[in-house]
Design brief:
Two copies of one chain form a homodimer. The first copy, chain A, has about 280 residues and is of the alpha+beta class. Chain A folds into three domains: about 5-90, Aminopeptidase (3-Layer(aba) Sandwich), CATH 3.40.630.30; about 105-240, Nucleoside Triphosphate Pyrophosphohydrolase; about 250-284. Chain A has seven helices and 15 strands. In chain A, strands 3-4-5-7-6 form a five-stranded mixed sheet. Chain A has a four-stranded mixed sheet with strand order 10-8-12-11, sandwiched between helices. A two-stranded antiparallel sheet of chain A has the order 1-2. The longest helix of chain A is centred in the N-terminal third of the chain and has 18 residues, at about 35-50.
């Protein structure tokens, strides 16, 4: 910290901060600090940032320093987001309306449409949630972990719930729904996976039952027939099984700004048709 | 609150709580409360919930009651998520590993591929962010608001940034990337929109420049040529313009459990081909 001023004979330090890409600063508090000394440092720092024309101020506060939350809030900060071990607070110095980006808004779920060579679909009954105890057979589903790729997450969920090894085929469709988890929205990606093993080993903690069920039996199930979304899933999945449907396949791309990789999910069948038709016209 | 015990001659109340769908309880604090009285109530309530076999305990704490954060954390709660005006804390009573679902993990962005009848693409230069000042022309992009549908959000962003009215055509592809915003991941949906107006009205606050640029000129731009993701976007967008690509189109579905609506994005061309081929075989 830089010492800039004194209060009641005590030295007041500026908070250490790094600049962000948008004319703001980020303060990451780590070590315990006397609350009164912190309050004076925060006031002085805000004064100093204002002189410098700083816009947004972020404070990342570990949960161990929870006693400082009320001091930061009293200075006009609000909550931006929280993770198990820290709280991120934010403040906007200019008199203009803030342009602080919103927090993460979506949870991401996956569902696996897994059909074996005998035209049987992999289905489970869950121990908790809205469908528990209804005898409702559903495809394996789950929530993507922080930092996990969709195609990895869906294969992991199938393995965890049923013990079946799979290979990723395609994202067949996705659903966006709102207010699904407190105020948050939900993106659910329906994926087709190819099974690489056959013997089911059920996850006892979350799964009540798991089995391979003939697709025709599943389609005729009265509970499925009454469940509009289950019928949509079946409709798309069967179209894919019958090879008359194309979803999105992940292509690895490199970021222009960093050595980060990400996956771009595209209708690769349609894109490849381009090159094949181009090849045809070349050869003709 | 229910009064159950007394401490030092004072009455201690249980915290008011409602049950959730997973064997837990949710406490929503609203009115100011004396910190010491709150601490006693919280301890007594946890004791009582433990007797009842309650698993997860959620406390929703408005920002006005920030002074209570440290008391709740001291009882073993951790942060689950935060929104500007409240903090959600959570605690797991059983000795087993918790099954508390993770917080929202993804921000959702949209990009608009908008091409007019003269084969010109709508492009902008941004005032902030990593691409500022580089003279890089890009498609209009933006972040989805909480509770906003993808197809609504992408049309809103194009209108805000360029003044152009549009009609939604399809989601052409999407990208999942990680660590894009603090620890959060990002889902970016590339959408095709059909322009319904022509005259550009630029958003002065965020946009440096906006124009219609001939697709061939954009494709030849050296900055675009060096930017792998921009080339992928162009590749898919041009395939769509040339009518040899099918993305996902939103179909409205009704939830089985509530009167909620959501949108299911599917390759509707392939699904419709089914019915047309079925019709053909019927008529033949």
């Amino acid at each position: 910290m830089t010492s800039l001023a004194a209060y009641n004979g005590e030295q007041i330090d500026l908070l250490a901060a790094v600049n962000d890409d948008h004319g703001g600063v980020i303060v990451e508090l780590k070590a315990p600090i006397d609350p009164r000394a912190f309050e004076m440092s925060l006031k002085l720092s805000i004064w100093s940032w204002r002189q410098q024309g700083i816009k947004g101020v972020w404070i990342k506060l570990p949960i161990e320093l929870a006693s400082l939350v009320q001091i930061i809030v009293k200075e006009g900060f609000w909550y931006h987001h929280a993770e198990p071990n820290y709280l991120m607070l934010v403040y906007w110095i200019p008199a203009t309306e803030h342009t602080i980006p919103s927090n993460a808004t979506h949870r991401v779920g996956v569902g696996a449409f897994v059909v074996n060579d005998r035209k049987e679909i992999l289905v489970v009954q869950e121990k908790s949630g809205k469908l528990r105890g209804l005898g409702f057979w559903k495809i394996p589903t789950g929530v993507i972990n922080q930092g996990e790729d969709l195609f990895t997450g869906v294969m992991r969920e199938v393995k965890e719930e049923t013990g079946i090894d799979t290979e990723f085929v395609e994202v067949l469709a996705f659903r966006q729904s709102h207010q699904s988890f407190f105020e948050k929205s939900d993106l659910f990606f329906l994926c087709m996976l190819r099974p690489l093993s056959f013997v089911i080993q059920m996850q006892e903690s979350e799964i009540e039952a798991a089995k391979w069920m003939p697709i025709e039996e599943y389609t005729a199930d009265p509970l499925v027939q009454k469940h509009e979304f289950a019928k949509y899933i079946l409709n798309v999945g069967i179209a894919k099984v019958e090879k008359r449907y194309s979803g999105f396949y992940p292509v690895c791309i490199q970021s222009a700004f960093a050595d980060e990789q990400s996956y771009f999910y595209v209708n690769s069948r349609d894109l490849e048709q381009k090159s094949s038709s181009a090849n045809e016209s070349n050869s003709s």
